[in-house]
Amino acid sequence: MIAALVALSAVLGFGVAVGTGTASAAPVRQTWWLDGCGMPKVQVHAWTRPGNYKTVIALDGLRATNDKSGWEYNTRIQDMASSGVNVIEPIGGMASFYSNWDAPSNLNGQKYKYMWSCVINNRLIPMLDQKGLAVGPAHKYAIMGISMGGSSAMIIGANNPRISHLFSMSGYLNLSAPGMRTAIRVAMLDAGIEAGMGPFNSDSMWGPPWSGRWYDNDPFVQINKMHNKKVRIGAGGGFWGQYNAVGSVGDFIGNVEGTPLEQLAWAQTRAFQVQALVNHVPITTDFPIVGTHTWGYWSDMVWRAKNSGWFHD
């Protein structure tokens, strides 16, 4: 657990941005701006195509940046828009857990309170409705995320009747488990320091560790809100594979740190699997033996979900 706590503050790397289609039959890439519910305006990148059968909102990880989503930097999941699934990527939200916070983060002098749940539920989804992107027979949305965004996707999806599909990849799905609140505290402190923004305070997010808001935002505790939802979870076994090439000392350190991070996510995701079984919530799973806390493995998880038909209603 000590190794996992230290590793949970690791940096997720970023890569190269990709292009988009422009022909009438090809996906269209768009940039939208949303009212931030008291935060600065939120940028959204979208890849859409008429006739697609589902729209998915893709959430970033702990070290989200304000220019592009990690999904766009590191993967080509936007290519799903060429074959059925519109991809929507909100930009930003570092260390936010995509939640409405109790107060601005006081340790780094943040000028505003994070209000990400408001942005996604009350700004983004109504905009998607207006643009006719509630496609498919159910006219509802999918939401997915990695790491921090994985647990966030589960909570947002569980509480929003406009969302039918929930997908967590390497998410921490039992935040009330012993040691997890300390792990989250350490990770949020480190994320802000590494980004030059100063440490984020988890007490400003959901209150002190004994606050009930930690339970409100714990997918494990909120499992019974996921009945009648289509739920998918996944995590790697922590073993190195094709996305763990070592070309520098930084690559080696990132790979080493990614192993305990993923093993902790695997343990938490397996615990959630048992919780779903006990509470009769049907789920699908993706537990490859090979896979660390790295974007390439998450991209593969998304494509496996799509190719299996999971995004269909």
From TrEMBL:
<dbReference type="InterPro" id="IPR000801">
    <property type="entry name" value="Esterase-like"/>
</dbReference>
<keyword id="KW-0732">Signal</keyword>
<protein>
    <recommendedName>
        <fullName>Diacylglycerol O-acyltransferase / trehalose O-mycolyltransferase</fullName>
    </recommendedName>
</protein>
<dbReference type="Pfam" id="PF00756">
    <property type="entry name" value="Esterase"/>
</dbReference>
<feature type="signal peptide">
    <location>
        <begin position="1"/>
        <end position="25"/>
    </location>
</feature>
<dbReference type="InterPro" id="IPR029058">
    <property type="entry name" value="AB_hydrolase_fold"/>
</dbReference>
